[in-house]
# Entry
Amino acid sequence: MNDTPRRGPIARFFVGLWDAMNFTRRLVLNLLFFAVLLLFLAILGAGPRTKPLQDRTTLVIEPEGALVEQYSSDPLTRALGKALGERGGEVQLRDLVRALDAARRDKRVERVVLRLDKLQAGGMASLREVADAIARVRASGKQVVAFSEMMDQKQYLLAAQANEVFLDPMGGMLLEGLGRYRTFYREGLQDKLGVDVHLFKVGEYKSAAEPYVLDAASPEAKEADLYWMNDVWQRYLADVAKARKLDAAKLAQSIDDMPAGIAAANGDLAKFALQGRMVDGLKTREQVDDLLVQRGVADEDSDGGFRQASLDEYLAVLDSGLQAVDPRPQVAVVVAEGEISGGEQPPGNIGGESTSQLLREARDDENVKAVVLRVDSPGGEVFASEQIRREIVELKKAGKPVAVSMGDLAASGGYWISMDADRIYADASTITGSIGIFGLIPTIPRALEKIGVRSDGVGTTRFAGAFDITRPLQPEVGQVIQSVIDKGYRDFTGRVATARRKPVEQVDEVARGRVWTGAQAKERGLVDELGGLQQAVAFAATKAKLGKQGDYQIRYIEKAATPFERFFTGLVASRMGAATLQHSDIARSLLAKASPQAAADLRFLEGAIAPTRGVPVKALAYCFCGF
# Structure
């Protein structure tokens, strides 16, 4: 057998170079082919994507996913997910409200149907904004019908605003009250694992880090939580009772008597809801569809057999008329939703730099005459919060009025970024306050000893390496950290006092880490007015002397999509593009990799205890006060 002659090093080099050139050529050609294919699909799918809205249309609002202020994923990811038929996702509060308000005035919309089973409702403030929009539709004389198979009490707050509420005979709906229970793991961390967590804070009500150092909630935390939760719950009962023409006290009593009431209904939750006048009838979805066919216009090609438009279709109709350049002055809305961290953060989180950049964009834009900061945040890092607050001050110096509209939550750092606005609006059930500071440092020498590992070495001073978590925390080091936290609290209360024109002592009385509802905060001077985003926009426009509603436009300032994202989003929204992607394994792979959820993989506290240059501990203004 003949041996194949081995090539020399020079020959091997040129052969390898030739192979690399061939690979590069094929790669470039394949990429060009893929781009041409996408362009071809876009052309095929071009044309009118928005079907015209006919007269006597029923608007079917069936939102699926979490109710949010701002999408946490980019347009490309959302478009791909929708094209591939993925379920869940997010629903923007602003979209729900504007669709309802438009339907109220739209002569082509005959009635509104609510199917809320798949809506993952947020906090009470957001729900009350949607509930008010539904009530406005009903007050306009248009019929609102709600149907559910299984409904929780948050979804029910919206359904209760309808003229008629129908529940599946095998379904259920219970009002149970508000609860807030947290997991405490001091014993697991300290006794079992040997991790000592050192907490430094100001304010006896600042309970955010209690789970790391206690086995149960402190009396102060329980006192404060029950105070604001009772206020929110009583308002919920009043809202439901008003919509359903019930007595709020009797409604509360029926919850206490629930076991006896359900037993009397032979365990039938649907019948129990009907007997309590929480719903108007028990019908299947098919029976409700038949009713809508009788009341509306029959359409055999539509789901349910009646002429209808979905929420997405109706929003597309509304957006189809917004292509022309609008010369009117602008009230800019900047959304600050999520935890506050340093640097650049994706949508759904607040970045000290990224959110500040959006506010600077509003300041530099000559068309923007006023700004509304929509806040839905439990807070976070103090320095990042201060960066954003400074931008609010600069906006006011530039002569642009600033209003804050608090959503579900604007506590701790969320209040820090709000306090310097010309006026603060909050819903009565907004959660706010929590003016306090804390720092958290774990040390793990005992944990290391459990596995036979120890830390040792030398330093040039007694404090060299003092903040190394593998070493015990010295009392003198704890004193340094507490001094930093004390200074942070003085900064916080001092800035609130200046912004709200109150003595520091008066601010301290309502601070100390305590949480308030919007109504309670207004009573204590932390909030100016009770109202939602619309009221905040109206104030900002009036202060900027923009005239009456209609003389100005509202513009959301958000991170702009890239040209590729805009192109690809348009492609997958087309009929041909969506049909192609639904059968593409490659597209599904791209979707899985495109999702910008890297930041969501990190827990907030893991980032909070990360070392920070120049400071011994990262000061936090954070509140675990959602429910």
The first helix runs from residue 9 to 44. The first strand starts at residue 57 and ends at 61.
